[in-house]
Specification:
Largest sheet: 6 strands, mixed
Structural class: alpha+beta
Number of helices: 10
Length: about 290
Amino acid sequence: MTQPATTGRASGGPLLATALELAARMIPVLPLRAGKVPFGNCPSCRNNVCGGRPNMKTPGPCNCPGPCHAWAAATTDPATITGPAWATAWRQTAAVAYHPGGAGLTVVDLDHADAITWARQTLPATRTVSTTRGEHWIYRGAMQSANAVRPGVDIKSTMAYARWLDSGTGTMTDLPDAARALVVKETSPVRTAHHAVSVSAPSGGGECRHRTPAYLDRGIAMAEQRITAAPSAVHATVYRTFLAVLSVHGRCGCLTGAHVRRLFAAAQAKGETVRHCNDAWINALTRLGL
């Protein structure tokens, strides 16, 4: 073990040791200060001058002197965890957190007894961790995070962090559709779908060449794949993909609500919110004069 790691482990105590153990299992970790709050942006990153988005959608640590950007600071790199940039944070750390989505996991956070009762009646059993107020149900698979999806229930996965308590009990199972349905609502793209199907047809008249199933379906499938494969800059990728789809299919009226829902679902699976999907779609419509 290198000297910096030895020094970091000694100064960080058992919490740092826990962080290193989780990182070795490829679970991205970050330190929390008192109150289960991540360390605030350092002066070098204040107001996102380092290039991070205000909504913290840019993944990965920045080049600042300390942990930054909440969930996006989570890492599995032991050199970062034990290095001098994080040394001060570990001396002030009250708990260890992790980024569930970064580990391919989803935490259904149940805050009280009624929420737990609902989960037992609705969701398949999985690994369970006791919390101070309720339970964390941990599933295999990532999804969009959201708070207050129903009384006492939060979803913590992509672009979120959860406090590490212990390994829990029970066998982890796959993320059920019932959990995904709490966040992805069928009615989410109504406004944008209306714009997509109301644009005028080409002036030449006749049947739209895009209405052939092979042409249109291939275009939507390629757009879904482009969004799904984005390794970073997801928001920009979603906007550019929406722009590309509308530039080809937006003026003839061939797009339907089902097509738009497919694009929105692909974006939401990568962590985009409904609001960001709507904004990207409307911005693309505006850019093309639709």
